[in-house]
Amino acid sequence: MGRHLDYDALIVDLDGVVWLGGRPIDGAAEAVAKLRAQGIRLLFVTNDPSRSRADQAARLAGFAIPASPSDVMTAAAATARFLAGRRELRGAAALVVGSPAFQQEIVDAGFGIVPHAGAREAELVVVGGHEQFDFAELRAATRAVANGAQLFAAGRDRFVPTEDGPEPATGAILAAVETATGVTATVVGKPEPYMFEIAREALPGCERLAVVGDTLASDIAGAKRAGLDAILVLTGSTTAADLEDAEPVPDHVVADLPQLAARICA
Ligand SMILES: [Mg+2]
């Protein structure tokens, strides 16, 4: 079972930890309830920039995990906060290659939105994976960057696994923009440390924080780069066998969220 773990807040990845594809992971809701009853603060994080925090909160609630938008940090929300924190960009005009939810995060962070037709006016281009991506959007982003706009992205994930097979993710679209422009983006989502640093800011007063995730290359690597403890669960993309020569090394490994709750609440 392992020794007792002492944390006052957990930054919890969603896919592979709370749910897998469209299905809840056994015991996850009960584990969340147990941790919350113990006073542990939870912030759910996801690299998916296409859905709003409200959507993700509603999805959690649908799996018997009560949540509000402020309980969720998406790569889109983190990117918006990251940009808002850069003085030189304050109030800048942004071209968003991304979903309506991503655009809204950028608007809410105080930026103006430039339509595709006005690409040359853009001072920054922000990229997030979404289903409506098309050539016109790629052309607008290319022209904006060629005209001097700075390039940012919510992540570099190549694809996300779904029940029907892999779905191209932010990294695939970003590769098109980077190839067309020859410019490398500043990336905010996992495994870059920014997302976890922003998540930490969303948990004021918490001192003993850990990231809980299922993927070594994103959750665990990002947590360590942000100076946080990293807890690996084996309910998603990583198996016990993968850990033999794992790099980076998680601080703790648990079978699943229920086992983590048992160790923290013991
Ligand atoms: Mg995951």
What can you see in these coordinates?
There is one protein chain. This protein has nine helices and 15 strands. The chain has a six-stranded parallel beta sheet, with helices on both faces. The longest helix is centred in the middle third of the chain and has 12 residues, at 135-146. The model has no long low-confidence stretch (mean pLDDT 96). α1 (28-37) packs parallel to α9, α3 packs across α7 and α5 (135-146) crosses α6. The chain has 266 residues and is an alpha/beta fold. The protein is elongated, with a radius of gyration of 19 Å. Bound molecules: magnesium ion (MG). Magnesium ion binds next to loops.
* Gap from first CA to last CA: 11 Å
Give the assembly state of these chains: single chain
Approximately what portion of the residues adopt beta-strand conformation? Answer: 15-25%
Order of adjacent strands in the largest pleated sheet: 5-4-1-13-14-15
Bound molecules: magnesium ion
* Element-level helix/strand string: EEEHEHEHEHEEHEEEHEHEHEEH
How confident is the prediction overall: mean pLDDT?
Answer: 96
Radius of gyration: 19 Å
How large is the count of helical segments? Answer: 9
Q: Looking at the structure, what is the overall shape?
A: elongated
Q: How many beta-strand elements?
A: 15
Largest sheet: 6 strands, parallel
Structural class: alpha/beta
Uncertain segments: none
Q: Give helix % range.
A: 25-40%
Topology:
Blueprint: E1 9-13, E2 19-20, E3 23-24, H1 28-37, E4 41-46, H2 53-62, E5 72-74, H3 75-84, E6 93-97, H4 100-108, E7 112-113, E8 124-127, H5 135-146, E9 150-153, E10 159-162, E11 165-168, H6 170-181, E12 186-187, H7 194-201, E13 209-213, H8 216-225, E14 229-233, E15 252-254, H9 257-265
Parallel strand pairs: 1-4, 1-13, 4-5, 6-7, 6-8, 8-9, 9-12, 13-14, 14-15
Antiparallel strand pairs: 2-3, 10-11
Helix pairs in contact: 1-9, 3-4, 3-7, 5-6
Bound molecules: magnesium ion.
